[in-house]
Design brief:
The structure holds two protein chains of two kinds. Chain A is mainly α. Chain A is about 75% helix and about 0% strand. In chain A, helix 3 packs parallel to helix 5. Chain B has eleven helices and two strands, in the order ααααββααααααα. The relative contact order of chain B is 0.21. The chains are: A mainly alpha, B mainly alpha. The interface between A and B is large, with 42 and 41 residues.
Chain lengths: ~325, ~290
């Protein structure tokens, strides 16, 4: 559930992102595109990782396959928008098929299984030279517009996908699907017992969490114009997306968008200022997040924080 | 005789994989933590061995005790100070935490040691018997890997600390009631996991190139070995390692080396679905 205030703030945020080309330089616009892109990924992950509580690390597999399906389709002469649609459907179908297999696993085994999916996708794409170009990568046809126009266009596209992911989250949250998924998170056996069709719910949730990752991947491929296996299946992204959702508050509708924005901005600051230590600083943020912000930014108890600041709440306060 | 050569290569590789994965399996089995730091501990052991050999002429065998001590100390401290605080949290939390720590160590190592691959070359030549040729350093590595794995098995079965670890794995609450300091045992377990990784790193430095870029691949191998063999048992890791080594060796020969990895992961996915307890599915860590 989200408050009117939260919704209003989110709407304001979307407007700010969408209007960055009017008042900011290219670098900021690029950052805005990345924010919208990661928000869409984190919101998608939220369906399986947040609502259902399944620790999936497969997001980057869906993103990468989306990149390649979209890129290959475009090279074959398919118009851009249609290529994105094809990528979305293909990734959705892949997730449904894989989900039927790995959703039988729980906890640690599911986590490892989802990481294995990323590895298998990456290895298959890097060794299937005739179709994917292997390690050399693929050139995707670029839009022959003015560079600023291209950036504005992809900003709007990514924001559009982000909004779609947001609406999907809001709908799932209210629908019986979301209720069932949350039951599964709390106690899967009990959910099964009271009549939630857990297998079907989980597969639907997993597929929904993959669909828009495929769209994002295909749009990303069209935006950057060149894809290769190391870029499309970044090992870091495997964990970044869940961390973003955790940072904002997994299982809430606004949290993943908030976390993605916070994470991308932090990352850009560290890239710009501490190039050599960038990875260590991100690691330290993750560690701090686990210890000091376990519920995410949205779940901070502001009242307690204020009291603590005034020094009324001492060490014996309940943890 | 080509089959014999491929099989021999696979078995040697398999023994190394077993040694690589057994510490990871122990931590997963006892603490229920997927330790993303495991690959970096291996690389750390490898780098220490390389620099001791290059700069001071110290033989890799001499490096075994100091590397063991150092990685154990790091592992103990990480578990006692950090992971213990969230050890009962869901897998997402502990995995993310160890991943964050891994990013820090990875960065420290890339800055401190540079990412250029390095290797200890002892120049021992190779031997051949029954039409099978094998480099001597690989054979020694295999012997050492098996010895270390066997030593861990002995420690788990026969020492007080080993029995305490098994007890905590079986029932944390009951073990605490019997006077076992659970937090200490958790830290020791994590330390042993790190120690085994560090020692595997010493062996690997002689056989494979050492570079931070390989830590992810070693971690992946540990996943696969654990799932194939079954979680949390020394024999499981041994079986898993040997199976993976032989499968990769044959897959590499018939489909090309690029596909050896893929076959390993596919085997793991298949086993996860068909028999998640692994080939040697046992309950207790013995």
């Amino acid at each position: 559930m989200m408050s009117r205030l939260g919704l209003a703030l989110f709407a304001g945020w979307v407007v700010i992102l969408a209007t960055t080309p009017l008042f900011a330089e290219n670098y900021i616009v690029r950052t805005a595109i990345m924010i919208a892109m990661y928000s869409a990924l984190a919101l998608s992950w939220n369906i399986i990782g947040g609502f259902t509580g399944y620790p999936s690390f497969a997001t980057v597999a869906f993103f990468g396959v989306g990149c390649y399906v979209g890129g290959i389709a475009q090279r074959a002469g398919v118009p851009m928008a249609l290529a994105w649609a094809i990528a979305t459907v293909a990734v959705g179908a892949m997730a449904a098929a894989l989900g039927a297999i790995i959703l039988r696993l729980k906890g640690h085994y599911f986590a490892i299984g989802s990481i294995a999916i990323v590895e298998v996708c990456r290895l298959v794409i890097s060794s299937w030279r005739s179709v994917t170009g292997g390690g050399d990568g693929l050139n995707v046809p670029l839009l022959r517009w003015h560079p600023d126009a291209v950036a504005q266009f992809f900003l709007l596209v990514m924001i559009g996908i982000m909004l779609a992911a947001f609406v999907m989250n809001a709908l799932v949250d209210r629908h019986r699907l979301g209720f069932g998924l949350k039951c599964i998170r709390q106690n899967e056996d009990a959910a099964d017992m009271v009549g939630v069709d857990t297998t079907r719910y989980k597969i639907v949730g997993f597929t929904l969490s993959a669909l828009l990752c495929g769209t994002v991947g295909a749009a990303y491929a069209s935006w950057v114009g060149y894809i290769d296996p190391t870029d499309s299946f970044q090992i870091l992204m495997t964990v970044k997306v869940p961390v973003m959702a955790l940072m904002g508050g997994a299982g809430t509708v606004l949290g993943p968008a908030l976390g993605a924005a916070a994470f991308v901005i932090l990352e850009e600051i560290f890239w710009a200022n501490f190039l050599e230590w960038n990875r260590a600083i991100l690691g330290a943020i993750i560690v701090a997040l686990i210890f000091f912000l376990p519920g995410g930014l949205l779940n901070i108890s502001w009242r307690r924080a204020a009291r603590r600041l005034r020094g009324r709440e001492s060490a014996e306060a309940p943890a | 005789m080509q089959i014999a050569q491929i099989l021999a290569n696979g078995l040697v590789l398999g023994a190394l994989y077993a040694c690589l994965a057994v510490g990871f399996s122990l931590v997963w089995g006892v603490l229920n933590v997927i330790n993303m730091l495991h690959g970096s501990f291996i690389i750390l052991g490898g780098y220490l061995t390389f620099f001791a050999w290059r700069d001071f002429g110290i033989h890799p065998l001499v490096m075994l005790p100091p590397v063991a001590l150092l990685t154990f100390a790091i592992g103990y401290a990480v578990q006692y100070g950090l992971v213990n605080k969230v050890v009962t949290a869901p897998v997402l939390t502990t995995l993310t935490l160890t991943f964050g720590l891994d990013m820090i160590i990875y960065n420290l190592m890339t800055v401190g040691f540079h990412a250029t691959p390095v290797k200890v070359s002892l120049g021992l030549g190779s031997v051949s018997a029954f039409g099978v040729r094998m480099p001597v350093d690989r054979l020694m590595g295999m012997g050492l890997a098996l010895l270390l794995t066997g030593a861990l098995y002995y420690v788990m079965r026969a020492s007080t600390i080993g029995r305490a670890i098994v007890a905590v794995r079986m029932d944390r609450a009951a073990a605490a009631l019997m006077g076992i300091r659970v937090n200490h045992i958790y830290a020791v377990t994590f330390g042993i996991g790190a120690l085994m990784a560090g020692l595997a790193g010493v062996i690997f430095a002689v056989i494979f190139p050492v570079t931070t870029n390989l830590s992810g691949m070693y971690l992946g191998k540990a996943f696969v070995v654990c799932v194939i063999g079954g979680l949390g048992s020394v024999p499981g890791a041994l079986v898993g390692g040997l199976v993976l080594g032989v499968v990769e060796s044959f897959a590499g020969h018939f489909f090309g080396p690029a596909h050896a990895l893929t076959v390993g992961f596919l085997l793991m996915l298949a086993l996860l679905v068909v028999k998640p307890t692994g080939l040697v599915g046992v309950k207790g860590y013995e």
